[in-house]
Amino acid sequence: MVVNWSTEMTRIDQTFKKLKSEGKKAFVSYIMAGDPDFETSLELVMGLPAAGVDIIELGLPFTDPMADGPTIQLAGGRSLDSGMTLVKTLEMAKRFREKDDSTPIVIMGYYNPIYSYGVEQFLIDAKSAGIDGLIVVDLPPEEDDELCIPAQAAGINFIRLATPTTDEHRLPKVLQNTSGFVYYVSITGITGAAEAQAIDVGPEVARIQKNSGLPVVVGFGINTPEKAKAIAEVADGAVVGSAIVSELAKGKPVADVLAFVKTLADGAHSA
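The chain above was modelled as a monomer; its predicted structure follows.
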């Protein structure tokens, strides 16, 4: 089932439009909501826009995060141990929205907590908390009726992941009800210089852009300003997650983590 959505621009659409008009690429950062606790996490989220973050991905902690690497798994564990829930994650977004009404927030996680909450109620509450998009890693396009289509109808972008294994046959299916942007995850652990990695990613990004007509951001084990710049040069933006979460895991003060984020954002924006 392919549905045409309303033409109303979401915060995500507006962000990419603004960046394009400025000739800039997007810098997207991921943090786990509630890691290591609610207040620290909220302080970090509040500081991200000033550190140059264009779009915030807020990780929703889950007990069985099968698609995450060890850094994110541990962050989810710390978050759950501190008592974080889906309700509190929405509360965090709501608190952020009191101060910032323009930076998009995307919730990234697994379907189970949303299913348990109740899809209809979740969409009402997410919308009122100021959530702009969802990335649900374990819901394939075959199950679009579950959450993807109701989310789009509620005015929330449903963002898909594409990988190097998403071939020509699969790609149209993955993209059919996607909106906002496409998140390209390079999982083929390529070693070597950031420039070489960017050369590999470039054609893939172009292929997805051509098929989707949407911006494509790349998450790629980016952990330096140089890598952020190299990837942003061949895509519409760069995503950094684990590198930021790792800094927090070392027990660094929020101000130091934000200073690190700013170096990455500056790298992406210099592309």
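The mean pLDDT is 93.
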